[in-house]
Specification:
- This protein is α/β, with parallel strands linked by helices.
- The protein has one domain.
- Helix content is about 40%, strand content about 15%.
């Protein structure tokens, strides 16, 4: 038992050393490459609970729509209600957008939004027969919320890393920036995508920087000022215990960042683009826009943001819940697009959706159950939009893309979807393959929504 533990420990140590060495060499290269480079940011918009993307982007006519309608029954979007899209690349399947996402259609038509069809967690390419015959390696615990959300955000099927792919990416860029902890910023607290890296993600709320209780008033006559000064003195003591030193350093960084970012946001004030009311996602994206607006004060060149919209686990009441969620999502994205236009940052920011998994093609009577493949969207000035990338599946129960119970097998891996975005950020193929170990299992360039 001791020998096994020692071997496992040494193996982990080797992985850590090799990974750190590659990230360090990458950072050194990027330090020169980015010295005169313009700003770029990724915004992960997580649709928490498993978005039913098959009701977001729908076959819009002919046999493909009839298969979809027959499978979905009363949950199907009416053919006449669909907002017909005209993808730039001819596709064998006509497609339409949910009528509750009308605010997104102009952005698609103008080329600022693209869809990636049938994305999902894959270890290697798989067909429905492969899955049924158990002839390919599958992601662990398919259809489990926790496990699939974790795999989406870590892309680490072989446990090479203990971090999210957002955290690993932020680590690469953090070394080239004056404020490493601002390379990754979360609007909803801890999340798998930004966790486990060398740098902790900076957490902020839609309302602003959380302040230390009883220490936020810095006016000279405030009773809180002596308390803050005493706290700072405690943080700067010489601690022999490693845990005490680490905690003091963490709190010092948090206090400095909170103070500096809060002050910069106060100087900025509100944007001219009005934030939609009663839309939590729009409020999160409003803060993201403000943080992008103050980036030059901190000399940031690369940042990764994380926002979240809850409620997509639509096992029941889908006909009521889904229209609300889609209208919230479309309104928030349309707002963010306008805010970035105001800031002249549209070409420098790419937003993309993630989710636990898709839903079943079949209805359970009042909703849909946990599925696998799913449709996602990418938005930004750099996106080659007005198009649908990948392969639209046949949405038929027991059809050629259903391996069991209306669950559609993905044809694009999450690692391929992520790799396209990392290329846009400026990483080369060797660096991307290191950050996304399973990518090597998928030949070809993958999605090309950045040209």
């Amino acid at each position: 038992m001791k020998e096994y533990t020692r071997r496992k420990f040494l193996n982990l140590g080797c992985k850590t050393i090799l990974g750190a060495g590659l990230l360090s060499s990458t950072a050194a290269r990027l330090a020169n490459a980015q010295s005169n480079d313009h700003y770029r940011a990724l915004v992960c918009i997580n649709l928490n609970g498993g978005n039913d993307g098959f009701n977001m982007l729908v076959p819009a006519g002919g046999a493909a729509y009839r298969e979809y309608h027959d499978s979905r029954g009363h949950l199907a979007v009416g053919e006449a209600d669909l907002l017909k899209l005209s993808p730039t690349t001819p596709n064998t399947t006509e497609v339409g957008l949910s009528p509750y996402m009308a605010q997104l259609k102009p952005l698609f038509d103008q080329g600022h939004v693209a869809f990636q069809a049938n994305v999902g967690t894959l270890v290697e390419p798989a067909t429905p027969d492969d899955v049924r015959n158990e002839s390919v390696q599958l992601p662990e615990q398919l259809f489990s919320h926790h496990d699939q959300a974790r795999q989406w955000q870590k892309i680490d099927h072989h446990h090479h890393w203990n971090s999210g792919w957002g955290a690993r990416t932020a680590d690469v860029f953090a070394a080239t920036q004056p404020y490493p902890n601002l390379a990754a910023i979360s609007l909803v607290g801890s999340n798998e995508w930004q966790s486990g890296g060398e740098q902790s993600a900076f957490t902020i709320s839609s309302e602003g920087v959380p302040s230390y209780s009883g220490m936020h008033d810095l006016s000279e006559d405030s009773w809180q000022l002596p308390r803050r000064q005493a706290f700072i003195e405690l943080l700067h003591q010489n601690y022999e215990n490693a845990f005490e030193r680490s905690y003091a350093q963490l709190q010092t960084r948090a206090l400095v960042l909170s103070t500096n970012v809060g002050a910069a946001l106060d100087r900025l004030g509100d944007l001219q683009t009005p934030t939609p009311q009663n839309n939590a996602l729009a409020e999160q994206l409003a803060m993201v826009a403000k943080l992008i607006a103050i980036k030059d004060e901190f000399r940031m060149t690369r940042q990764l943001f994380y926002v979240d919209l809850h409620g997509f686990d639509t096992h029941d009441d889908q006909l009521r819940v889904q229209p609300y969620l889609y209208s919230q999502l479309a309104e928030a994205l349309a707002y963010f697009h306008q805010a970035l236009l105001e800031l002249n940052q549209l070409d420098n920011v790419v937003s993309f959706t993630s989710s636990d998994f898709g839903r079943t093609v079949s209805s359970n009577g009042d909703g849909t159950d946990h599925g696998w493949g799913n449709h996602h969207l990418v938005m930004g000035g750099a996106v080659h939009g007005a198009d649908v990338y990948g392969t639209m599946p046949r949405l038929a129960v027991k059809g050629p893309d259903d391996y069991r119970n209306g669950r559609i097998v993905p044809t694009t891996a999450v690692s391929q979807y992520a790799a396209a975005q990392l290329r846009w950020l400026g990483l080369d193929e060797n660096e991307i393959n290191n950050l996304l170990p399973s990518l090597k299992n998928f030949p070809g360039a993958g999605p090309s929504f950045f040209g």
